[in-house]
Amino acid sequence: MQNKAQKKDQNPELSLAISARGLCKSYGETTALNGLDLVIPKGQCLALLGPNGAGKSTTIKILSGMTTADKGQVQIFGKSWSKNKSELRQSVGLVMQETNLYKRFSVLETLQLFHSFYRNPKKILEVSEQLNLTKLHGKHMGDLSGGQKQLVHLASTLIGNPSFLLLDEPTVGLDIDTRNLFWGYIKEYLQGGGTVFIATHYFEEAMQLATHVSILSAGKTVAHGPLDTVLENVALQGPAMVDLQVNAVNADRWAKTLKAAGLKVQKSAGSIAWKATTPKEELERIAHIAKEVAGFESIRFRKPDIQQAYEQLTQTPG
Amino acid sequence: MNQLLQLVIARLREFRREPSAFTFVLLVPVLWLAILGFMFDSSQDERPFKAAVASSAELIASELESSLSPLVSLVHTLDASAAEKKFLKREVDGWIELTADQRIKTVYSDPDSSRSRSMLWAIERLGGKAESAPALSKQQVVRPKSTYIDYLVPGLIAMTVLTTSLFGIGMTLVANRREGLLTKYRSTPVSSVWLFSSYFIGRIFIFSLELATLLFAAFLLFDYLSYPFLWKFFFIGSLGCICFSSLSIFLAAKTSNVGAYSGKANLVMLVFLLIGDVFYRLPALPGQVDQLAKFLPLNTLTQWLRHHASPRLYDAPTAAQIAVFVCLTFVFFLSAMKLFRWSADES
Question: How many helices (H) and strands (E) does chain A have?
Fold first, then answer.
């Protein structure tokens, strides 16, 4: 036991659910991934954001073992798809955006079918109750709403008791209530120790679920890490909102001086805010002004939200 | 094993709950049987008596030809047994051979038919005309009761196996691929061997239903009794299911569009039916095509079924025909596995 624990300390890879290094994938002359790196610690949720064509779907396909990368390595719980396929199929669940399960099968029949595929499945009733599907057991899939179908789809995946869940834009087209329900179940799954990878266009979804974020642009990771760290890094690279705290006596002088320097400032008692170009330039500007005007107290760069960070990093409106 | 059981149940559920498939699979073959059976089984043509002439009688063939024409038309065969086979298959109305004791042996059935009577009259006239003509002996043979239905039913079974395999399995696979269901399957631990096996097993279950319906209808409409060879029909038909299901998976291996698959399947059906003798004997095809047509899986299957239903009338397929049938089944299946795409956008 001790040896195992020591090994784990020495090898940080063992605490990772997913480790992808230098993934490259091309379709003909089109490069989908160009050296993508990703890591997800066990029990965490990583949201993958990126504009259309950035390589999100290709990443999902590679991580779920549907396709192989031209170059690079993927390890899921320390195992590779090429050597441990049948084992990984038991522990990795995939929920896609659009899957039409048999429309003439009832919900229960659908769950029974998928239940039979796994070695250690959860009980059908347990999953159904968890997702409020018990009352729909007798209904045919073709008679369900889009949201209910997606919940059955999630149930057919969760029934396998996966340790790692891959979600490919799972709530596209769902109304806000169903989306909230869906997120609630994913949060429960995370609290139960599961690991989640979610490719999404919804920033709110990322903010609700993700502990880590990865932003893709042109097949490469432009930001990756814990959500707060990514946002802080973006804030330091600017542009961002700057909050300046100054002595109330000198506030007018500060505002006047900054306006004279060409900045569009908003003044309130003891506080002046403006949109910075880059933080470094701002700091130099403040340092210069502070030499002439007294009363400087503190300066703070406001963290962007995830959408602002995404727009800034991908140069794409979210 | 539970995986396979659930998958087979899923295949049967799909079939049972698809009204058009149910009609297509069970009703259409019965309609064909009724329409063709009533149209052709009672047909009475007024053509002349058609006699096979065994090579032993070739010496007198020219005399026979000039004497008997136009009342009797002659078909030359290698020997008496080949002539008998043609007679049993109803390709000729009787046969003529020269026996070892130099008698003209004339074999026929149905002495009351005008065609038999005219043939006997013509042969007697030949005997009366030629001094050296061999003596005439007559022999009446009761031909095994064989009707067009005996010919049609095995052909219909083979055709049903082909059409429902092509359209049942291939169409379903293409639609499932388009709807993302195959990708969903692939993301689970379900074994692809079990998945494809479920298509074969499900197909055989459905075939047993088709077979029972068709044979029951044949019994009701035409007194066609199949119980002596029922299990042989089931066994051979099941081999046909595996062959044509493999062909169907092969055709659907890369297709994501139902229309495109339908085009491919119709093209295959057209070729199979054009040079297959399902409904009626085709006029002689050009030599090489005729030889190739024998190896068409549909023709091998039809011939095999007909042989078991009427062994005296129809030859069993040759070892070469069966070998080609088995090889094609493997080629279709292995190629399908090699080319198979799980998702519509897979390259």
Answer: 12, 13
Provide ipTM, 2 decimals.
0.76
- Residue A128 token pair: 């159904």
- pTM, two decimals, is 0.74
Domain co-membership, A72 together with A186: yes
Host domain of residue A78: 12-233
Q: Which pLDDT tens digit goes with each residue over A170-199?
A: 888 888 888 888 899 999 999 999 999 999
Structural domain ending residue among the three candidates A203, A233, A263: A233
Give the number of C-alpha atoms closer than 13 A to the C-alpha of residue A64, restricted to the C-beta side. Answer: 28
User: From CA A162, how far away is CA A12, in angstroms rounded?
Assistant: 22
Residue A182 has phi, psi (to 5 degrees) of: -60, -45
Q: Is A219 helix (H, G, I), strand (E, B) or coil?
A: coil
- Residues A233 and A288: their CA atoms lie apart, in Å, by 24
**Nearest-CA neighbor of B5 among B181, B177, B197?**
B197
Across the interface, whether the CB atoms of B6 and A116 are under 8 A apart is answered yes
Q: How distant is the Cα of A153 from the closest Cα of chain B, in angstroms?
A: 9
> In sequence order, which residues have a C-beta less than 8 Å from that of residue A214 and are 6 or more positions away?
A38, A46, A47, A48, A49, A221, A223, A224
Please provide the DSSP assignment of B17-65 as one string.
Answer: T-HHHHHHHHHHHHHHHHHHHHHHTT----PPEEEEEEGGGGGGHHHHH
**In a shared domain, residues A40 and A93:** yes
Chain B interface disruption, residue of A90, A112, A113, A141, most B CBs within 10 A: A113
